[in-house]
Amino acid sequence: MKTGKILDARRRKSLPFQRQLTIGKRNFEKKGLLFSLMFNTSSANSIKLSVPEHIASLVPYPPGKPLEELEREYGITGSIKLASNENPLGPSPMAVAAIRNALAGLNRYPDGSGYYLRRRLSEKFNLPFDGIVLGNGSNEIIELTIRTFLLPQDEVILPAPSFLVYKLAVQTMGGKTVPVPLTHFTIDLARTVAAITARTKIIFINNPNNPTGTIIRKAEFDSFLEAIPPHIIVVLDEAYIEFVQDGDTPRGFDYIHRPGPYVIVARTFSKAHGLAGLRIGYGVMEPAVADYLHRVRQPFNTGSLSQVAALAALDDEEFLHKTQSAVAEGLAYLYREIAKLGLNTVPTQSNFFLIEIPVDAKIIYEAMLRLGVIVRPMNSYGMANTIRVNAGLPEENKRFIKALSRTLQELPESR
Questions:
Q1: Do 327 and 388 sit in the same domain of this protein?
Q2: How many domains does the chain have?
Q3: Rounded to an integer, what distance in angstroms lies between the CA atom of residue 136 and that of residue 115?
Q4: Model confidence over 329-376: pLDDT tens digits?
Q5: pLDDT in the model for residue 31
């Protein structure tokens, strides 16, 4: 019996490639399995995947190149990066110490429930323990919400422009995004209500909004929640909430116990706590809602070092206050100096802001890159004459202004 199988396999190897494919396909069909690969018969080495249209048409999130690679490519050194809204002071020192102390335990799987971090979040912010879901950054909370509740052809309303991941995550699930244009760079809640249909399942509110840095007002948000159907889920993305100085903006934790519409608050340790490289965030919601996200969440979605670092960072109040002060002082300096250059800015409640420029943003980006200063062109957000910059260290802010001034002076007169 074994000899026959071996001989049969040898005969199959000697058959032409196309004949092997035909036999293989028949075997799949006989067993009732989906033959999901479509083979291009023009070449034995050319294989075409059968991919759903909503996946094939996805435009990937545009990540920046590593700083070292950019320096190698452009022949520069000592660059500064003000493009990703990162913490200029680095990571929380208490988080770094906690990581060092936890290194010896890396042979163990992480705590799949994130018990200690969830417990501390519950204690610090007076939140229901069972309503906290940890994520691989707040991105995962966004994706978990969509994967849990969205059906193909369901609609998701989102501000435009706003965080690009919303659209990507919705499209991945075969949903339909309904963009609502900003009004004066700010999320328009009245227009958002008007965009609701019978197919609306989720609404994203980014507060402060990325990339504009603007906020919504508490009274407007309260009226908004009263105006929308109770079955809709509102995701309040508060990735930059620690930088808000204006007291007249809603704080998501105050809304999680609503009976409907349910509010899911997404927060991160990437920005104010300086842990972007660890990818750790969390969502807060009614425990009954969290129960469904936990069913979809992977068992070990956050690592051991991420959990211990976030736990330590929560109590590093000194570092948080230093970060907030550094950002506020940096923004004030940048506003003053940019005004001297005759450029308009968008007032922000975050650690970044927008600058309107007289030419295509990619031209400014390329020119400043050659000077060792990395900024974010807003072309992918539909804002071709705008760059986004986050506040850096004082010496970085000064270097940015110097580079921007030089770049503007060297622009062709015909602009």
A1: yes
A2: 3
A3: 15
A4: 999 999 999 999 999 999 999 999 999 999 999 999 999 999 999 999
A5: 41
Residue-wise burial string across 268-300, b where 16 or more C-beta atoms lie within 10 A, e elsewhere? bbbbbbbbbebbbbbbbbbeebbeebeeebeee
Tell whether 73 and 20 lie within a shared domain.
no
- 326, 218: one domain: no
- In the listed set 315, 333, 354, which residue is the last one of a domain according to the structure? 315
Q: What pLDDT sits at residue 16?
A: 52
Could you give the CA distance from residue 67 to residue 308 in angstroms, rounded to a whole number?
27
Give residue-wise pLDDT tens across range 157-187: 999 999 999 999 999 999 999 999 999 999 9
The answer to whether residue 375 sits within a structural domain is yes
Please write the tens of the pLDDT for every residue from 65-98.
Answer: 777 888 888 888 899 999 999 999 999 999 999 9
The length of the chain, given as a count of residues: 415
Q: Examine the domain organization and report whether 190 and 275 are in the same domain.
A: yes
The CA distance from 122 to 305, in Å, is: 20
Instruction: Show the domain range for 297.
Output: 93-315
DSSP 299-361: TT-S-HHHHHHHHHHHT-HHHHHHHHHHHHHHHHHHHHHHHHTT-EEE--SSSEEEEE-SS-H
